Amino acid sequence: MANLLVEIGNTALKAAYSEGTTLGKTFRYQGEKTLDYILSITAKEKPAVLTVVSARPITSEEEAKLKGECSTLLILDKTHSNCLQRYNLPDYLSFDRAASLIAIRYLYKGKACTVFDFGNTLTIDFIGADGSHQGGNISPGCRTRFISLNRYSKSLPLINTPMEYPQRGDSLKSSIESGVISGIMFEIEGYMRQNPENIVVFTGGDAVYFANRMKHSVFVVNNLVLLGLSLITEDYVEKNN
According to the CATH classification, is domain 3-80 in 3.30.390.10? Predict the structure, then answer.
């Protein structure tokens, strides 16, 4: 039996079956009925282990239903944090962020890395060559910046992320486009200059968008959280067998 990995984020759910650390087809869902969607997946194939990382706590009712869909249920949220203690990561990290850094340690073992995760927030994490977490920062993500300008200023329109943008705006629209995208680019380049010897890894929804605009070499890794969940699951199974 395969394992099912589920990442419930702030705006979307991603899931994939896995055999060891090999991920199968990825499922994506945007909506409020996340439990129903998970049950629609397990109705087709019951997993051996169902591992769920969630930005919000899983209720006791949801947990009970999920337990009936698998042989073993592993939940990572604020009320189920024990299994992450062995990874020597700071307690303040969100569980999806912790999972992605566990994956980074696996993919780039022995290498120092700077990891950018482009989502609703832009998170930046520094991983030492020994796998230690050396701190990190959080700032608004790309789409969040466009929405914030519109929401908190009555005179500014809501702009979509542009395919191309000028270095300096020559209209209200292009000024917003350039201001947001250039600002993020300057932010990325500033962090890269702090540790120029580090491997740079991009992940998250806007990773490819910004990777295509970089002058320096970066690695884009899709489904980093799901890979981390597969590693956590394998470790858990090995430890408890």
Answer: no
